[in-house]
Amino acid sequence: xxxxxxxxxxxxxxxxxxxxxxxxxxxxxxxxxxxxxxxxxxxxxxxxxxxxxxxxxxxxxxxxxxxxxxxxxxxxxxxxxxxxxxxxxxxxxxxxxxxxxxxxxxxxxxxxxxxxxxxxxxxxxxxxxxxxxxxxxxxxxxxxxxxxxxxxxxxxxxxxxxxxxxxxxxxxxxxxxxxxxxxxxxxxxxxxxxxxxxxxxxxxx
Length: 205
What we know:
Blueprint: H1 33-42, E1 58-71, E2 74-86, E3 91-99, H2 102-115, E4 118-119, E5 131-135, E6 138-144, E7 151-152, H3 156-164, E8 169-173, H4 180-192
Parallel strand pairs: 7-8
Antiparallel strand pairs: 1-2, 2-3, 3-4, 5-6, 6-8
Protein backbone atom coordinates (compact mmCIF):
# COMPACT_ATOMS: atom_id res chain seq x y z
CA UNK A 1 0.00 0.00 0.00
CA UNK A 2 1.53 3.28 -1.16
CA UNK A 3 1.82 6.29 1.13
CA UNK A 4 0.23 9.46 -0.09
CA UNK A 5 2.23 12.63 0.43
CA UNK A 6 0.18 15.04 2.57
CA UNK A 7 2.33 18.13 1.90
CA UNK A 8 1.14 19.86 -1.29
CA UNK A 9 4.31 22.00 -1.54
CA UNK A 10 6.63 19.01 -1.93
CA UNK A 11 7.23 17.49 -5.31
CA UNK A 12 8.83 14.17 -6.09
CA UNK A 13 9.90 15.36 -9.52
CA UNK A 14 12.46 18.24 -9.15
CA UNK A 15 12.11 19.22 -12.82
CA UNK A 16 8.45 20.24 -12.43
CA UNK A 17 8.02 23.31 -10.15
CA UNK A 18 5.29 23.19 -7.60
CA UNK A 19 2.62 25.81 -8.05
CA UNK A 20 2.13 28.14 -5.13
CA UNK A 21 5.61 27.59 -3.68
CA UNK A 22 7.79 30.67 -3.03
CA UNK A 23 11.22 30.36 -4.58
CA UNK A 24 14.03 32.10 -2.63
CA UNK A 25 15.63 35.00 -4.47
CA UNK A 26 19.15 36.03 -3.49
CA UNK A 27 19.10 39.35 -5.42
CA UNK A 28 15.77 40.53 -4.07
CA UNK A 29 15.83 44.26 -3.24
CA UNK A 30 12.75 46.09 -1.94
CA UNK A 31 11.32 48.97 -3.91
CA UNK A 32 13.41 52.12 -3.56
CA UNK A 33 16.26 50.39 -1.72
CA UNK A 34 18.47 49.99 -4.80
CA UNK A 35 18.63 53.71 -5.59
CA UNK A 36 19.31 54.48 -1.94
CA UNK A 37 22.25 52.09 -1.88
CA UNK A 38 23.69 53.59 -5.05
CA UNK A 39 23.48 57.11 -3.66
CA UNK A 40 25.03 56.01 -0.37
CA UNK A 41 27.97 54.37 -2.14
CA UNK A 42 28.62 57.51 -4.17
CA UNK A 43 28.86 59.79 -1.13
CA UNK A 44 32.42 60.99 -0.38
CA UNK A 45 33.85 59.92 2.91
CA UNK A 46 34.47 62.65 5.44
CA UNK A 47 37.82 62.87 7.14
CA UNK A 48 37.58 63.76 10.81
CA UNK A 49 41.28 64.60 11.19
CA UNK A 50 41.72 68.30 11.87
CA UNK A 51 45.11 69.78 11.10
CA UNK A 52 46.19 72.32 13.70
CA UNK A 53 48.21 75.31 12.62
CA UNK A 54 51.61 75.54 14.29
CA UNK A 55 51.77 78.27 16.90
CA UNK A 56 54.60 80.80 17.01
CA UNK A 57 54.64 80.72 20.82
CA UNK A 58 55.73 78.03 23.25
CA UNK A 59 53.92 77.68 26.55
CA UNK A 60 54.80 76.15 29.89
CA UNK A 61 52.50 75.40 32.82
CA UNK A 62 54.35 76.88 35.77
CA UNK A 63 51.88 76.20 38.58
CA UNK A 64 48.43 74.67 39.00
CA UNK A 65 46.59 74.91 42.31
CA UNK A 66 43.08 74.39 43.62
CA UNK A 67 41.57 77.37 45.37
CA UNK A 68 38.39 77.52 47.46
CA UNK A 69 36.23 80.51 48.27
CA UNK A 70 33.80 80.23 51.17
CA UNK A 71 30.50 82.03 50.62
CA UNK A 72 27.10 82.06 52.23
CA UNK A 73 25.88 79.32 49.92
CA UNK A 74 28.86 77.09 50.59
CA UNK A 75 32.36 76.49 49.23
CA UNK A 76 33.20 77.31 45.63
CA UNK A 77 36.15 75.35 44.31
CA UNK A 78 38.13 76.52 41.29
CA UNK A 79 41.51 75.94 39.67
CA UNK A 80 44.22 78.58 39.26
CA UNK A 81 46.83 78.20 36.51
CA UNK A 82 50.04 80.16 35.95
CA UNK A 83 51.28 79.99 32.36
CA UNK A 84 54.53 81.22 30.80
CA UNK A 85 54.36 81.99 27.06
CA UNK A 86 57.28 83.04 24.85
CA UNK A 87 58.61 82.90 21.30
CA UNK A 88 62.20 81.97 22.33
CA UNK A 89 63.47 85.07 20.52
CA UNK A 90 62.84 88.15 22.67
CA UNK A 91 59.23 88.10 23.91
CA UNK A 92 57.80 86.47 27.03
CA UNK A 93 54.73 86.88 29.21
CA UNK A 94 53.08 85.55 32.38
CA UNK A 95 49.35 84.89 32.75
CA UNK A 96 47.29 83.97 35.81
CA UNK A 97 43.64 82.92 35.60
CA UNK A 98 41.03 80.83 37.38
CA UNK A 99 38.48 78.44 35.94
CA UNK A 100 35.89 75.84 36.85
CA UNK A 101 38.16 73.12 35.45
CA UNK A 102 41.82 72.76 34.54
CA UNK A 103 41.33 73.24 30.80
CA UNK A 104 39.43 76.48 31.23
CA UNK A 105 42.02 77.87 33.64
CA UNK A 106 44.90 76.97 31.29
CA UNK A 107 43.20 78.52 28.26
CA UNK A 108 42.40 81.77 30.08
CA UNK A 109 45.89 82.11 31.57
CA UNK A 110 47.50 81.41 28.17
CA UNK A 111 45.36 84.12 26.58
CA UNK A 112 46.35 86.61 29.28
CA UNK A 113 50.02 85.70 28.96
CA UNK A 114 49.96 86.42 25.22
CA UNK A 115 48.19 89.70 25.92
CA UNK A 116 50.75 90.87 28.54
CA UNK A 117 53.96 89.94 26.75
CA UNK A 118 57.07 92.10 27.10
CA UNK A 119 60.07 92.51 24.80
CA UNK A 120 63.53 91.79 26.19
CA UNK A 121 66.54 93.71 24.84
CA UNK A 122 69.04 90.90 24.19
CA UNK A 123 72.65 91.51 23.16
CA UNK A 124 75.00 88.61 22.39
CA UNK A 125 72.39 86.14 23.71
CA UNK A 126 72.37 87.77 27.17
CA UNK A 127 71.07 90.87 28.95
CA UNK A 128 72.97 94.18 28.71
CA UNK A 129 73.41 94.83 32.43
CA UNK A 130 72.57 93.61 35.92
CA UNK A 131 69.01 94.11 37.21
CA UNK A 132 67.19 93.56 40.48
CA UNK A 133 63.46 93.44 41.22
CA UNK A 134 61.08 92.53 44.01
CA UNK A 135 57.49 91.29 43.99
CA UNK A 136 55.91 90.49 47.32
CA UNK A 137 58.38 88.42 49.28
CA UNK A 138 60.28 87.35 46.15
CA UNK A 139 63.57 89.06 45.24
CA UNK A 140 65.39 88.23 42.01
CA UNK A 141 68.81 89.31 40.80
CA UNK A 142 69.81 88.82 37.14
CA UNK A 143 73.36 89.14 35.83
CA UNK A 144 74.71 88.88 32.26
CA UNK A 145 77.08 86.07 31.30
CA UNK A 146 79.53 85.46 28.50
CA UNK A 147 78.57 83.46 25.45
CA UNK A 148 78.62 79.72 26.02
CA UNK A 149 78.05 79.87 29.79
CA UNK A 150 74.39 78.85 29.52
CA UNK A 151 71.48 79.43 31.87
CA UNK A 152 72.88 79.46 35.37
CA UNK A 153 69.41 79.62 36.88
CA UNK A 154 66.83 77.27 38.22
CA UNK A 155 63.12 76.91 38.66
CA UNK A 156 60.93 79.80 37.59
CA UNK A 157 63.74 82.08 36.41
CA UNK A 158 65.12 79.40 34.10
CA UNK A 159 61.74 78.77 32.45
CA UNK A 160 61.11 82.48 31.80
CA UNK A 161 64.61 83.13 30.45
CA UNK A 162 64.46 80.06 28.20
CA UNK A 163 61.10 81.01 26.67
CA UNK A 164 62.25 84.64 26.40
CA UNK A 165 65.26 83.78 24.22
CA UNK A 166 68.02 84.43 26.77
CA UNK A 167 70.71 81.76 26.41
CA UNK A 168 73.40 83.04 28.78
CA UNK A 169 72.49 84.46 32.17
CA UNK A 170 73.00 83.90 35.88
CA UNK A 171 70.36 84.54 38.51
CA UNK A 172 69.91 84.43 42.24
CA UNK A 173 66.64 84.32 44.17
CA UNK A 174 67.32 86.40 47.28
CA UNK A 175 63.90 86.01 48.87
CA UNK A 176 63.06 83.03 51.02
CA UNK A 177 59.66 82.39 49.45
CA UNK A 178 58.91 79.39 47.27
CA UNK A 179 55.84 80.94 45.68
CA UNK A 180 56.28 80.39 41.95
CA UNK A 181 53.88 83.18 41.04
CA UNK A 182 55.77 85.80 43.04
CA UNK A 183 59.09 84.61 41.65
CA UNK A 184 57.71 84.82 38.11
CA UNK A 185 56.35 88.33 38.65
CA UNK A 186 59.66 89.42 40.16
CA UNK A 187 61.55 88.03 37.15
CA UNK A 188 59.24 89.82 34.73
CA UNK A 189 59.69 93.06 36.70
CA UNK A 190 63.46 92.67 36.49
CA UNK A 191 63.32 92.09 32.74
CA UNK A 192 61.19 95.23 32.34
CA UNK A 193 63.95 97.31 33.97
CA UNK A 194 66.52 96.35 31.34
CA UNK A 195 67.51 99.36 29.27
CA UNK A 196 68.23 99.17 25.57
CA UNK A 197 72.00 99.37 25.12
CA UNK A 198 74.11 99.11 21.99
CA UNK A 199 77.49 98.97 23.71
CA UNK A 200 79.38 95.83 24.57
CA UNK A 201 78.07 93.81 27.48
CA UNK A 202 80.22 93.47 30.58
CA UNK A 203 79.98 89.86 31.66
CA UNK A 204 81.34 88.03 34.64
CA UNK A 205 84.32 85.85 33.85
